[in-house]
Amino acid sequence: MKTANLPHANEVSLDHSGHFVADPDAARAALEELGFTVTPFSAQVQPDPQTGESRLTGTGNICVMLPEGYIEVLVHTTDTPIGREFLAALDHRAGLHLAAFGVADAAARHTELSAAGHNMRPLVHFSRDVETETGVENAAFSVARLAAGVMPEGRVQILTHHNEAAMWQPRWTTHANGAQSLQAIVLSSPDSAETAARFSRFLDRPAEPHGAGLRIPLDRGALEILPQDDASTLVGQPVDHGCSCFVGLRIGLADVSVLENRPGACWVDGSLALPFDPALGSGVWLFDPT
After folding, report:
1. Per residue in 119-156, is it b (16+ CB within 10 Å) or e — as a string?
2. Domains in the chain and their CATH numbers?
């Protein structure tokens, strides 16, 4: 059955974004100060291929679970290949380094992408028991990732959730600021057409003109690609000048006015723009009424 976070066959949704940060407590405080509800910290694990025992992947997270999509904030936990990749990205800058897209069958899409010549890592399956208000649920999902370095923006992946109820619990999806949805990830690019073409091939969705840049609409959510000068103006500073990178999140709110008096907030083309707190790295929020 299709729900807000489980796409139908042949659909692609914007599942979540990923901040890489050094201090999860400071990141939590920054998110809660904006009125987001934040989940408890969770160290990420996956089964050992030989023993089947759970082992640390190298990162852990806190999340803002929206009714549609979510925002992930990742930190380092241990020395693994993924952990080392995380630290290399964090040493470059804190901020957005991950975009994840939801599909109905990540395994099938992994096969299709590999056959089409995309350099993919092996498909991986994650699961963990999580506490809910009614007992314990198993949060399970399958993830297909492009190989490291294929996308200069960072970690780009597709995934399928196998137990939506374990992830999107009502107690975590209600927010004081009225947040409803992850509507778009915003990119800065020195060559918008090249960046859009790469993501279009991966997502099998065309790009279309959008303001000063381009937009790739999905079945839920979108990618927005801005020329780097326009992105720098929006963010208030250059971010990875000369490289394509993730620089912003567009969030749907029930009432944007609850945030319009925040320091640094300003209206840009009908959206309320607000710089990320330094604990979340360089970038900008774009809040839209829903």
Report:
1. ebbebbebbbebeeeeeebebbbbbbbbebebbebbbb
2. 13-173 (3.10.180.10), 179-289 (3.10.180.10)
